[in-house]
Amino acid sequence: MKNTLKLSILSLIALVILGFRADDTPLEKLLKQIAKITATYPQEKVHLHFDKPYYTVGEDIWLKAYLVTAEKNEPSLLSAVLYVDLIDSQNTIRKKLTLSVDKGFASGNISLLDSLGSGMYRARAYTNYMRNYSNDLFFEKFITIGNILDTKSSKKVDEKKLDLNIQFFPEGGNLINGIRSKVGFKAVTSDGMGANVSGYIINKDKEKVAEFFAEHAGMGIFALTPQPNEQYKAIVTLADNTTESFKLPNVLESGQALAVNSVAENLSIRISSTADLINGKDVFVVTQVNGTVYASFNSKVDKAVLSANIPKSSFPTGIVQVTLFNADSKPIAERLIFVNHNDQLKIEILNAKAAATKKKMNLALNVKDLAGNPIDGNFSVSVTDLGKTPFDEDEEKTILSNLLLTSDLKGFIEKPNYYFNTANSDREKHLDNLLLTQGWSRFIWSDIVANKEPDITFRPEQSLEIAGKINTWGDKPLPNAKIIMFSNTPGYTLILDTLSDARGNFVFDRLEIPDSASFIIQSKSNKDNKNINLVLNKTPQVAEKKYIGNTVDIATYIESTKTMFNELNKFNMLDKSIQLQAVNITGKRVLKPLINIPNSANSSGAADQVIKSEKLMHETSILTAFSKIPGVLIKNGMIMRASTRTVSLTQAQQPMLVILDGVYIRQAEQSGFISSLNPSDVEGIEVLTSNYNTSIYGEDGYWGIVFITTKNGSTGKNPPSTNTSSVRNRGFTATKQFYSPNYDDPKTNQQIQDLRTTIYWNPTVITNEKGQADFNFFNASMPGTYRVSVEGMDVFGNIGRKIYTYEVK
């Protein structure tokens, strides 16, 4: 095929400048389309580095954010605002951070109050701009949180048999008649974890044609040459020696198969065709990494097997997407393969030697690239006590495993750092198995082939913004509508105006918002302001996800932190945001089951009283419905709490906070606004009065909270017209300073047992032009093995990670 092979290393800039010509070949046209999309619509990724993998209430989650371009992992300058959500197992947001991003970097902390129950949570991070693409591209990581008060954490969960699901993935996408193919498989149980299975493949005559076994995380491979008119079935043996059968994909009578193998210094590519497709027509192959095409070739199909080699040096480290197209530019087969040049930053941690308890540690970083050149970069450092917080290195979601692998793949990846841990000798083979079975999520070929550009609804935020859309109730955008925003917060004056664009979108940007400021946004689009629906942008929906179990013994960790809290309390040094009874109460808290109200803005998912639409539809007015709720009073048309809350001589009892479809309703508007609601238009009402349910909302929830969720017209009636919305915006989330005691200071109480689990956290360690940086801290009271974790990058997207341990005696 040497006479027909055309291999090209492409320049994206040149392609964009050239534009499309009438005589462009299909391959040239496709390459220019890819280059145009990549250059015009760059994408972002985010990685979070945490101080440790699990926590208890009363602690802080410390995190560092690395926001990068998807194309080259360089620090992103597109967005200056990052959102971080803590989501519980009911898929509700329990905590939300808004972080200021400085040239791709941000840091913050999540304080864990005792309203959080024990269980699995997930941290989600994204920018507003990332919302234009699949939510699968948001950063997500599962985190275990324990609660001393929650006795459920110490109960043994009854083991039950887990259902098995196994899927088969022929290399390139299809089983094709007569073409020998590699077939990957992935076996998972109903808890989402890989299953240790083995088995064999039979044809319709029950003849054994192949055998297989799971090598890692339920994944493995076998070879199969499909025959015409056959249906294959897998007989699978589980760990308990029971068997189940599963069908393989159907065999195509006609087609072309793509096989890619990593051989020495090359990627070996083989294209196999059935006899009817050996017709002299062109096929072409495009290889790209994160939207940048690094090599492509085309060939006429004049024989059954075509082959080519592409040097691995053509590609950067990362996932290479190899796609086979037919003469009509239709993608017909695809393969993902990983190229690893092991060119990550080389990080040395100096002076981490054995030392005494409470001894000052003066450590230093020395960072170089592969060629030995010093690197000035931005790094984060965590030091933990391994005796209290043991780590499973394979479980970690690191800057390497995330930015180079999982951020571009669909679905849950079990033990992502396994594939980068040099202690695992088969990691490269098992990574190839993973890429046979895992879906690619960043690019949709059908859109690129059709020259369809992404629908950009959410723009990159360079500052705090309040944005929304104005339509008629017939969902027709209102262009050039005048929108006014003013603050109703005492002591804070702000009046702004803007116009909606052609699609009805509007935005107020470059805001400097103090904590807990509230605003009114109002339209002045026509004379009577009727038939208008002004809606503010909301937090992206939380996709329902199965919470993956892990092997953390959280009960043991809870006991160690309980000892720490008691020691701090003894010396009156416990953070007062931690409720003191948390370390003393031994009774059980009765947790009410969650009652789900669709589309509710109640981030906790829990409420003391819930009234659903079935009951509301029989009420004559919404205020009548409220008057029947225990613990609630109606006074002057406002919703009040009938409680024993302390009322001072200078502060009278206040109405409950009312949140309608996620919008805060001002007290001055509450009476008329609520009474105008039709009970039949309301999906549900949630009333929060207990400390347990209101505490996550801080002082906003002191007098109680009412969430009203409407049906948004699902009854067939239009909701009441409104040209006004209210919003409370907290501005950027303030970040606490990590506390590290100074035992050289005579004022420091030396009698305190220092039982911290996170010994040191520094999210901003900057190396100088010599690649060096110094930092120091004091060891805690407990001897044992301490673990130093460093992650970071330079301005060119070179990333690195280093783990080091030292003994404390």
Could you characterize what this model shows?
Belongs to the TonB-dependent receptor family. Its main location: membrane. It is a multi-pass membrane protein. Keywords: Cell outer membrane, Membrane, Transmembrane, Transmembrane beta strand, Transport. This protein is mainly beta. The protein folds into 5 domains: 44-152, Immunoglobulin-like; 164-339, Immunoglobulins (Immunoglobulin-like), CATH 2.60.40.10; 346-444 and 735-808, Sandwich (Immunoglobulin-like), CATH 2.60.40; 464-536, no CATH class; 580-717, Ferric Hydroxamate Uptake Protein, Chain A, domain 1, CATH 2.170.130. 10% of the residues lie in helices and 37% in strands. The longest helix is centred in the last third of the chain and has 17 residues, at 554-570. The chain starts with 11 loop residues before the first helix and ends with a strand.
The best one-word shape is globular
* CATH superfamily grouping of the largest domain: Immunoglobulins
Query: How confident overall, as mean pLDDT?
Result: 83
Helix content: 10-25%
CATH class of the largest domain: Mainly Beta
In percent terms, what proportion of residues is strand?
A: 35-45%
**What's the tally of helices?**
10
- Report the structural category: mainly beta
Number of strands: 45
Integer count of domains: 5
Q: Report how far the terminal alpha carbons are from each other.
A: 67 Å
Radius of gyration: 30 Å
Largest beta sheet: strand ordering: 2-8-7-4-5
Low-confidence stretches: 1-20, 153-157, 573-593, 646-651, 713-721
The largest sheet is: 5 strands, mixed
InterPro entries: Plug_dom (IPR012910), Plug_dom_sf (IPR037066), TonB-dep_rcpt-like (IPR039426)
Pfam family, one: Plug
Keywords: Cell outer membrane, Membrane, Transmembrane, Transmembrane beta strand, Transport
Organism: Pedobacter polaris
